Amino acid sequence: MNDYNFDPKVRTVWWEDDGDGRAVVHMLDQSLLPQQVVYLHLTHEQQVAEAIAQLRVRGAPVIGVTAGFGMALAVTRFLAERDADRLETTPAEIEAHLAQVGQLLGQTRPTAVNLFWAIERMQRSTRQACQAGLSSQQLAEVLKAEAHQIAVEDVQACWQMGLHGAELIADGDTILTHCNAGALATTGIGTALAPVYMAAHTGKHVHVFVDETRPVLQGARLTAWELQQEGVPLTLITDNMAGYFMRQKRIQAIFVGADRIAANGDVANKIGTYSVAVLAHVHQIPLYVVAPCSTIDLALLSGEQIPIEQRKAEEVTTLYGTRIAPMDVAVANPAFDVTPHAYVTAIVTEKGIMRAPYTETLRARCMPSRQNKSE
Ligand SMILES: CSC[C@@H](O)[C@@H](O)C(=O)COP(=O)(O)O
């Protein structure tokens, strides 16, 4: 998949043509990890939408990649069905179909902006191909290539974030991370964990403290598993232990990912990131946010405007299907929170390390790569 020196041991999502005009999106079902390593083979955009909504695939960058593959899959499937019925399909009909698929996918997870970025990018490619007078088959090929390009760029961005972020890690450091912003959240070596892998790969000794990350336990289930696969030493802690270890001076830096970053540098990330950031601020521990430019939403001036996904109560009232709370209890379950930019020491993107004030730097460095190169 990439031209670099080391590949992640986990593979999240990829595309395959079966040779008969049928396409399959393969995906590691992260909702079953670490107990079961199961791969899904998706052939319909409805299945792709269900997989995103149910956290079978999760983490902002790979949600974007999956949306790209889902849209390419939708076109291939649509054309194959119409062919089987001996119906001609115009590019305009494909464009209309993709508008519906974009809506379907766009309803799955409101906070991760990579989802909308990828949907818009695929729709822009469609428009341009239609304007250029391409045939329906050619349009399907263009969309497949665009989806692959999104994945390739993700791999490259992860690598660059790793290179830049590793500069912030000293030999012997212990890093705290929250949720999973590793290879499982991307098609490459991750965002927040990319600097850790890069530092370890270049001979630095790094230890990672992993917040379990209630309610869905991405830290305990995914980050702990992923770091084990990659041979990086780790200590799993519950979320409410982070302050204890910071006070004991056991943590030298915090690395987290992001689901959406507003123009002023406010960061939406997994619920609990804000609490970690406040603790880090009090203990004067640097907090680094590592995310590709596709996670930056320059249309939003501040984090106040970021939509926060509210998920179902069962994620809080149950653990692995076992009820842990009394029946009929009132529950709140926001999946993300916003960390104000004042608590963010630096934002690391594939374009380098950026520090406050963020607005101009993010705009200058990230704006060009958020646009489609063919524009
Ligand atoms: C590189 S992933 C960055 C974020 O997407 C990650 O930290 C996170 O919050 C994921 O949340 P999730 O609900 O598991 O999709």
From TrEMBL:
The record marks 179 as: Transition state stabilizer. One of its GO terms (molecular function) is S-methyl-5-thioribose-1-phosphate isomerase activity. The keyword Iron-sulfur does not apply. InterPro entries: IF-2B-related, IF-M1Pi, IF_2B-like_C, Initiation_fac_2B_a/b/d, M1Pi_N, NagB/RpiA_transferase-like. It comes from the Bacteria. GO terms for biological process: L-methionine salvage from methylthioadenosine. Its EC number is 5.3.1.23. The active site is at residue 259. Pfam families: IF-2B. Pathway: Amino-acid biosynthesis; L-methionine biosynthesis via salvage pathway; L-methionine from S-methyl-5-thio-alpha-D-ribose 1-phosphate: step 1/6. Substrate binds at residues 58-60, 109, 218, 269-270. It catalyses: 5-(methylsulfanyl)-alpha-D-ribose 1-phosphate = 5-(methylsulfanyl)-D-ribulose 1-phosphate. Belongs to the EIF-2B alpha/beta/delta subunits family. MtnA subfamily. HAMAP family: Salvage_MtnA. Catalyzes the interconversion of methylthioribose-1-phosphate (MTR-1-P) into methylthioribulose-1-phosphate (MTRu-1-P). This is Methylthioribose-1-phosphate isomerase. The gene is mtnA.
